[in-house]
Amino acid sequence: MTTTAWHADPLNWGNGPRIFEAFLEPTCPYSVRAFNKFDQLLSQAGEDKITVKIRLQPQPWHMYSGVLVRCIIAASTLEGGKETAKQVISAIAAHREEFEFERHASGPNMDVTPNQIVERLERYSGVKLKEAFALPDLDREIKWHCKYARQNGIHVSPTFMIDGLVQPDTSSGDEVGAWVKKALGN
């Protein structure tokens, strides 16, 4: 049996010394709001001053969270790496309600299989995910995200850390300028 080596590209943008980490669940409306501000954060802060790192935070009350997190990690192993993963996150964000349950326990997705969720995401993102999704040990990367969140006491999404310290007073509802000021001290 031959095993193909794969690499999950870290979901990091920018190359600055200040580290802004965001723990996100892809179908959480507040995580989506935060995710949609990251390009602006990098632009305002300067990619040479800040590094934005997405940490995936699967949550069981978002019923397809594990499937979607696996899709994002799978996408990061494909050509384009983190940019391909970003494309997948963007597709989930743009169609969030089609990957979620009503009141976390009902609605049309009750009759949808994980394969159908992956196929839906492939259509929306334009990324062929099935082969990478099936990588036998892809779960090692998913487990890393979970362990990293747990060791830092992260329970909810989104949660933000700056230079390794949790920022309990930082919210997805904050203006990007507030994030810049907090991260850079300007």
Percent of residues in helices comes to 40-55%
Give the CA-CA distance, first to last residue.
56 Å
What topology, given as strand order, has the largest sheet?
1-3-2-4-5
Largest sheet: 5 strands, mixed
Tell me the number of strands.
5
What structural class should be given to the helix and strand makeup? Answer: alpha+beta
Q: What would you call the shape?
A: globular
Give the C-alpha Rg.
16 Å
Tally of helical segments? 8
Strand-and-helix sequence, N→C? EEHHEHHHHHEEH
Percentage beta strand? 5-15%
Average per-residue pLDDT, rounded, comes to 95
Question: Would you kindly provide a written description of the structure presented here, covering whatever features stand out?
Answer:
This protein has 186 residues and is of the alpha+beta class. Strand 4 and strand 5 form a beta hairpin. The protein has a five-stranded mixed β-sheet, with helices on both faces. The model has no long low-confidence stretch (mean pLDDT 95). It contains eight helices and five strands, in the order ββααβαααααββα.
What is this entry, summarized?
The chain has 186 residues and is of the alpha+beta class. Helices cover 42% and strands 12% of the residues.
Search tags:
single chain; 186 residues; 5-stranded mixed beta sheet; 8 helices
